[in-house]
Write a structure and sequence with these properties.
globular, 3 domains, alpha+beta, four-stranded antiparallel β-sheet, three-stranded mixed β-sheet, Butyryl-Coa Dehydrogenase, subunit A, domain 1
Length: 383
Amino acid sequence: MIEHYQPHWMTDELEAMRDLARRFVAEQVTPNQERWYEQGATDRKVWTKAGELGILTPDISEVYGGSGGTFAHEALIAHELCIAGDTSWRAGKQIHVIAAHYIERYGTEEQKRHYLPRLASGELIAGMGMTEPGGGTDLQSMKTRAERYSDGYRIRGSKTFITNGSIGDVLVLAAKTDPNARAKGVSLFIFETRTAGFRVGKRLKKIGLHGSDTCELFFDDCEVPADSLLGGIEGQGFYQMMKDLTYERALSGVNNAAVIEHAFRVTRDYVKERMAFGKPLLDLQHVRIQMAEVKTIATIARVFADFTIERMLDGSMDTSVASMSKWWLSEQQCEIVHRCLQMFGGHGYILDYPIARMYVDARIEPIYGGSNEILKELIGRAL
């Protein structure tokens, strides 16, 4: 089963990195879960410690301070966080890596050398400023404006549901530089949150992921220099977002498969130990059948996630496969966690049990990174 499964893309070097990530999670992440859960955000210490170990931006080039690895490195770290039951740092860490990729892929040489080493070290924490109060997936219709003036741009508008919103130092921020155009009117900026006129609203109270901060952000005539425009060319933002959302969706699928595996493991252990009618729950035929189905889906999910990783490694990943991975695996995560929770009975409704937290955390998965309904439309268009 999953415990003994070894994908063919695994190497000795990747195994060593996985072991490093596993130790890091055990020492720096798991002991802080409850405190982060209560305070609604992570501490800066975990970011700088990950930077010291080279696991904060593992697939960013060494030229810019990263570890020079591949998507497989990031996927293994994400897997270890999910398998350990992290509900706090992994969401912010994923957004941080995605933001760094935007800068590496599209930034000018000066932008890359200025920001990426500090993102790799944890000196800076990054977020993504895309979603707005009036719309999410329809990025072409955003209202935030970036108006050109003599020395730069003046940005006004608001964003919502922003991960790392209260702790972030920089944002890859989407704004309209041409309000009369749709896709071609969108540009991306590297926005520093110390900029005058920037305000962080309240931390939003979410159903789940309570240890990861999610905020409203406001931009009140924020003046930024012209060289904050990502890549230095206006009107490229929508193309850049569509290209890099493939990375985000592929990584989300890896997370989904790992959480499914985690749900299977904790439920298996519970039904082996929990007594009912004088015998373990697993001795009941209905529970055995349920667990057989969960184990099968967990295995299929892992194989699908590994297929996604392979496509990322060989450069053959496309929008359709990334979208299929993200929508199917996220919906399977919701379904499997729901079924597993039922086997915990009343205990599954108590947040002291990891299955309860997995249940509330899972509901965001079919929504963020592009709603699953939109992803199915993208797949359908490519038929």
